[in-house]
Amino acid sequence: MTTPTADETALAALRERYARAARNAASGGCGRCPPDPADGVGGCVPCLPDPADDVGGCGRCPPDPADRVGGTGYAAGELADLPLGATAASLGCGNPVAIADLREGETVLDLGSGGGLDVLLSARRVGPRGRAIGLDMTPQMLDLARANAARAGAGNVEFLLGRIEDIPLPDASVDVVISNCVLTLSLDKPAVFAEIARVLRPGGRVGVSDLIADPSVSEDRRAACPQAAGAAASLTGPEYRAMLAAAGLTGVEVTVTHPAGPDLSAAIIRATKPADAPPYTIAAMTAAHAPQVLAIYQAGIDTGDATFEATAPDWAAWDAAHLPDHRHVALDRTGAVLGWVALAPVSDRCVYGGVAENSVYVHPDARGHGVGRRLLEAVIASSEAAGIWTLQTGIFPENTASLALHRATGFRDVGIRTRIGRHHGRWRDVVFLERRSTRVGTD
């Protein structure tokens, strides 16, 4: 029997917590955990079920649907005529419907839709010509949401079973994505943001209520918290901005609304998919991309003007040489890799901990379509969010396209390293460039 991984265990526990909440709400109880710093809403102490009841989390139940957690930001009239099961099962930290600027006839997707509260509110706003879709990974929540929709007489809603890291909808199929305190629980947030960018139509919008971690919290403290509980799973504001930007979304805003527990705040997050968005998305690189990544690397090597290397390494060697949190791929609509970017450390000395060397390669058939620029922008964003202050690279003078790309994204020429190495029997010069962050290390 295979032992579950830590991520699988955390996911199973989360699914069971929400299943209990759904069962309790369906039976007339309350599915929410209160905003008590001593429990798992907002802190590092997991939410433990009370054996005396089946609340689905903390053993206590806030009596008011307009509570801080579960009903934050909803006007009293909004909830008055909704089924109790929808409001009772709300585990959110805000009101994403109020910030999403929904319009008549639009299609809206709610990630982690729970008992259907925000789907039902969205359905009202988009009207009969529009559609509101809820996505949830818990069958019990979907059963509850469908029952609530039937009670509310909502005919323009749909509820789907699935995970927010792998949304079961076609590309460019929704106008707005909302979510209420669910994205923070994902163990693969780059995948979530890439999926959001994929399913949004050009010009589409993101309106999310979520938890963010205090930037002053140390990495050691965040690592010590259990996964999917409090600050362990939550991003800081800068990390949120960087990941959404890396996914190709623009106009990112992160606005704190109220404290939500030790080291955590509730926040409103807005972003937009550019109206002229290219037919590809930027996503976190995984081992599944390895064959295509190495093939693109070899294609660059074969030009004779990309690197001193003669052949691409195997994946194990490549993986060991690059920083795990700063590697991105551009994917077309079929999931094929169009290009990649990655960072490698320049030294193991602490003083150079904020300096990294970047490499960016684009498939020959994808050149000239802005792929390289989007990749560089993604790694700049992720590096700055991680506190890296300088990116550097060396480029052959003959590689004019790469030189232009780097200069256009803020790199400056430091100088030319003359006859620095032999390549295919001749000495080669290398132009040394660097990009010094204007956001990190400015004190």
Keywords:
443 residues, alpha/beta, Rossmann fold, Aminopeptidase, 2 domains, 8-stranded mixed sheet, 7-stranded mixed sheet, 14 helices, 15 strands
Q: Which word captures the global form? A: elongated
Q: What is the name of the CATH superfamily of the largest domain?
A: Vaccinia Virus protein VP39
**Total of domains:** 2
User: Would you list the SSEs in sequence order as H and E?
Assistant: HHHHHEHEHEEHEHEHEEEHHEEEHEHEE
CATH topology of the largest domain: Rossmann fold
Spans of at least 5 consecutive residues whose pLDDT stays below 50 are: 29-71, 226-232
Q: Biggest sheet: strands, sense, closure? A: 8 strands, mixed
**Proportion of beta-strand residues:** 25-35%
Helicity range = 25-40%
Distance between the termini: 53 Å
Our Rg estimate from Cα atoms comes to 24 Å
Find the count of extended strands (DSSP E, 2+ residues). 15
Q: Which CATH class of the largest domain is shown?
A: Alpha Beta
Structural class: alpha/beta
- What value does the average pLDDT take? 82
Specify the CATH architecture of the largest domain: 3-Layer(aba) Sandwich
**Helix segment tally:** 14
Helix and strand layout, with pairings?
Layout: H1 6-26, H2 68-71, H3 76-79, H4 84-88, H5 96-99, E1 107-111, H6 117-126, E2 131-136, H7 139-152, E3 157-161, E4 174-180, H8 189-199, E5 200-213, H9 219-224, E6 235-236, H10 237-246, E7 250-261, E8 264-272, E9 280-284, H11 290-302, H12 315-321, E10 327-332, E11 337-345, E12 355-362, H13 371-385, E13 390-395, H14 400-408, E14 412-423, E15 426-436
Helix pairs in contact: 1-7, 10-13
